Amino acid sequence: MKVFRNPYWNGEISQIASVLWAVSNIIKRENFVEMYKSSIQGAANKDISDDVLEMASQMGEQTENAADEIVISQMVVLLVTYLELMIQEYFEVLFAKHPLRMYEYLFVSKHGVDIQGKVDLKEIAKAESKDEIIDNLSEGAAINATSGKFKTILSRLEKSSKLTLMEIEKENLLNLVNYRNKIVHEAFRDENDQGYFMSGYIAVVNFLSTLIEWCEINELPHGSSV
Known about the structure:
- The protein is mostly helical.
- The chain is built from 8 helices and 2 strands.
- The mean pLDDT is 83.
């Protein structure tokens, strides 16, 4: 039986914030300025000029800022990865419970044309029961439903669930995904990374609560997987 594992996703999302907090505090405890000064003095084996010491100070400050930004950026990437996997799992559970809703996401290709709602005979032959067939099909349908632009994926989520997300909720999630895309494709970093992460984190936590409500409305199994 497919189960939406909301306690699992809640734990994974919370852990991202905990790890970020821990690593950020470690970075702040490190004295990068003194580290650079000591390194330069050790290499020169003599007193160094004030200009060089000032350069070491600037390098230390830049290193601390860069380290903090890089860590936050990677946490944003991880947060969106969990968001995407969470949505895919929800689709699997939804389609397993309501098989007809995956009709438009099931297709086989014939002469280069995708035929909607068709099932490969191999999927039927290798399964031992109807439930296993549906579970297997739901996985493939969920992959198809979560392909493409994130805005389209949210629209499919609403249509398949027969429910609607609040516009502000969609906007917050789209902002987070767009920010992740800039990090991944443009190596983008910003001094306000911490703010972007926190707003995205809150958006994902709220979205998980929405999915739990939708599970209840659509009578989907959710909770801890057995």
